[in-house]
Design brief:
By secondary structure, the chain is an alpha/beta fold. 40% of the residues lie in helices and 11% in strands. The chain starts with a strand and ends with a helix. The model has no long low-confidence stretch (mean pLDDT 92).
């Protein structure tokens, strides 16, 4: 497992939280160029990430993506490879934080609530990983 990200204090804090209780995890947060990140993604078995550049890099190099979506609509911004590997909590976030359904929102509207991504559970991500690796 390799954890990547930008070099901000918040991203480094997240990496520390993720890696502190895990063995054999490589922390490359703030330590890769964009070309190096693309090379890592190209060699990866899978990428797990929210709506961000790495999801699109993975799609471009044909690396499977487990996309984590709660703040943006994966139908608009998600990876195009396999929608069934997406953990989609965007509809729930719309209901919970905007009191609207996806159909009631303008196309592309984001949920800007700081707790929206907490709607994505570890179990949901593990289930998608099981589906992904079981499909190979």
């Amino acid at each position: 497992v390799i954890v990547t990200g930008g070099g901000s204090a918040l991203e480094k804090q997240y990496a520390d939280e993720i890696t502190s209780n895990l063995d054999d995890v490589v922390d490359l947060v703030g330590k890769t160029t964009l070309k190096e990140l693309a090379a890592l993604i190209d060699r990866a078995d899978a990428v797990i990430c929210p709506d961000s550049g790495p999801a699109h890099i993975a799609t471009a190099v044909n690396t499977p993506v487990i996309g984590l979506y709660a703040t943006s609509n994966p139908g608009r911004t998600g990876p195009s490879q396999r929608a069934d590997w997406i953990v989609n909590q965007y509809p729930q976030a719309c209901r919970q934080y905007l009191s609207k359904t996806v159909d009631d929102l303008r196309w592309g509207q984001r949920v800007r609530h700081p707790d929206a991504m907490k709607l994505i559970t570890v179990d949901a991500v593990v289930e998608k990983l099981d589906q992904l690796f079981g499909s190979r």
